[in-house]
């Protein structure tokens, strides 16, 4: 994991096409076209349901933030999920094959969640950063782009949080779209997924569908894929406790037209 990460960051730092792995640009200029992004698959026995053929992909984001959990007793089989706080960054234009994307292939693109998780400071206001205790009255710093590997600038897109009814909300504030959603289906993250700085493992992949609460704008379906970190600790280890675990994930946002 560590060597793979260093390799990817080296690639990011060398945006100019100086490495042997870069293709000559002359072969692609005349045939340059925007690829149709394909939702990743876990490769396992369980997949999240594919988007319907009529679904229109609006954005691909990386979310970087915290998953929040609680254990009431040490004997509880798993911690209960309370919510999440994450900043969303727009990686749509980095999709491999998109003209102007400095990422050369799918591997570099898929590595973005790990790159965020291990090399980008959590974009959260903390009362205790070492223990991942967020300032929940004012959790988010002012909107700002992310910079990875020294020179990959990724635009701010919006925020992910749970609303006053504990319903997951994705507010893509820079483009005026919102998704208020609930879980429709899930699939375990692949065995090799990034376990994250807390070492607890990667949260499941999800298909989230519109909540019917009347709070969405222009979005109907959200996928969480290529997750890194975010799983809870065992309640036997923490005892009764409420705490947060850092994570990163891709979110794919669709409208059903
Ligand atoms: C986690 O959930 C608890 C209980 O709802 C809440 O008090 C705390 O502020 C939450 N922390 C974060 C980081 O969301
Ligand atoms: C929701 O999940 C069920 C069970 O996997 C699936 O049959 C259904 O197609 C999903 N809904 C959408 C909108 O994909």
UniProtKB/TrEMBL annotation:
Signal peptide: 1-18
Disordered: annotated span: 25-50
InterPro entries for this protein: DUF3455
Cross-referenced PROSITE patterns: PROKAR_LIPOPROTEIN
Residue ranges with Polar residues bias: 25-44
Database matches in Pfam families: DUF3455
Transmembrane segment boundaries: none
Keywords: Signal
Descriptive protein name: Malate dehydrogenase
